[in-house]
């Protein structure tokens, strides 16, 4: 795989299934337009292939009405202004033209059909007048740099890759889609929630009278990362607190028995981190007081992936995606479960693979599944067996996908370490790059990873590991580095590297280390404490100094205390910048100008310290990008970054 082959990364997204109609939205990077292109595709559940369903350039988030008559989706147009924002469109399921039914300044979120097959719920950010291209009270539309100053009184006021929050709160809407189809232009919509709090994840009650959603604890009266489950009458009224959680809530749905299911984390304090996401259930409250939830899944062994979709009830079970040992598996949780362990949950699909989304219609189950040979294809579960319905990764395979070889190592304290190596073709000996993921409560997975494939195709063996601190190996595994960054996690990574270097065609004298975010932190840390193991380092979007991260990162006000503690001396002890004087290998600092997760000053401070210490340090700075450059940045920037990575390792390895 070459850098320009990112155009072959065609990835299916959200699935919609009703009867014989199975839809997915596909997306791929497009270098010519320097954007991501995609449309809805119809997949034949019978195995007859797939075909175009819509012909927009940026269509996504398909949803089929319960009666099967309509398809709603998001369409983003070209150019600028409202047309260039995702707007809800509706078209007949039998085929025909799509019509836009929203015209919101900042666009709309994914549509969710009501049980009447007429109304659609969605969330959307609503800007203050005079901001983000809207008119102010004087009828003027100020340029961004001419907008009035933001008056900020809270800590949770901005998010990376989203922007400022207080002046464009995310609010809940309901629109009569069928009525809107008969109108010449989209009607003015009134939000069902006020501007004091961001809300998310709408879903409907079976009678269509209420819309559930998640919102901040006590309606954001104080700074908090805690969220609860609320409901509001679908025709308008006061929101009501349904479930007060023990931490957070995501993707609430009403089960057939009237209870409420949701994903959630449980934590005792504000600065708690690295907690497994569980499946929870709560009764619909009988009075004015919110109900208390119970956890259906085990705290230690079950970590639900809420990004894969809301929980779905099938019979007496709930389908969820669970992360485990680099896999994302579709599992079934009994509705009457009490802290069910992973080993007791029925396995449906995803062994040594990654289920990224799923949908259910009756007893039929479809999913988007990535594998070591695929970035994602649509799979139907029939008679207990998976049947692959698409071949979106053919172009990717044609670039030459290299195998993902499993590695198991033992740390100095006897702890088991799990990972992989991707080796180039040929006899070698091949130079080696140890690659460290971000998070740290995240994981490399059993699926195609473009970063490893590009390097391996260029002749480098890539070692990928999930050391202590990673997700999917038990909550205690993830929490083992809390207030201990750079300890056992570093030991695990070096143990895995040593295991890989036992392979006969890897060159232990030509080894580099690289990573982003937490991986950038670890790259800096290893360069300082174990620099003799490496020829050079590439540290990207890194945390280098916890003291300034506290006040500059969008999540610094709670995340830094959670991982490094609140003691200033301890933060200094856990900061790679403290040990910059020990780094003496060539060192690349790569960063994005608009990174609010690990702000630019984190890179600047490390680069200046290294330069002043006489290190062969370089600084690669991407304009306009945020923290997600390598995953969703402008396609040309992604290719330019790959070119720079290959040039760097070509010089030093």
Automatic annotation (TrEMBL):
InterPro entries: 6-blade_b-propeller_TolB-like (IPR011042), AB_hydrolase_fold (IPR029058), Peptidase_S9_cat (IPR001375), WD40 (IPR011659)
Keyword Protease: yes
Signal peptide: none
Annotated segments matching region Disordered: 38-61
Span of domain Peptidase S9 prolyl oligopeptidase catalytic: 446-653
Keyword list, A-Z: Aminopeptidase, Hydrolase, Protease, Serine protease
Source domain of life: Bacteria
SUPFAM superfamilies: alpha/beta-Hydrolases (SSF53474), DPP6 N-terminal domain-like (SSF82171)
GO terms under biological process: proteolysis
Pfam families on file: PD40, Peptidase_S9
A GO MF label: aminopeptidase activity
Protein's name according to its UniProt entry: Dipeptidyl aminopeptidase
Organism this protein belongs to: Amycolatopsis lurida NRRL 2430
